[in-house]
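Researcher: Here's the sequence for the chain we discussed earlier.
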Amino acid sequence: MPMTHQEFVSAYREGRVRVRLDRKAAARLVSRRLLLPLVLLPVFGLAVALALAGAWIWGAAIFIAALAFRAAVRASGPGLVLSRSLDDPAFYRDALAAGVLVLE
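Model: Thanks. This is the structure I predict for it:
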């Protein structure tokens, strides 16, 4: 039987439960929740447009910055999922149901 959110929070803070996070699933979950593709697609388009218009340095800089932002969001996914699971009961249930958060 899964723990309730309140039981999870108290057990985690007391060290009675171990949490395993699927890194790839956490990255996908965070990307989906932040609407990352919807945000980055216009930014990549702007970068390509600038490069084609002759401002290739600005285009390359924006493109690299967008890639770095995407990588940073994906790398911080597990930490974001854990902290959000500790704060939000609905997110905790969603993360458990999706298999991103596994209690041991």
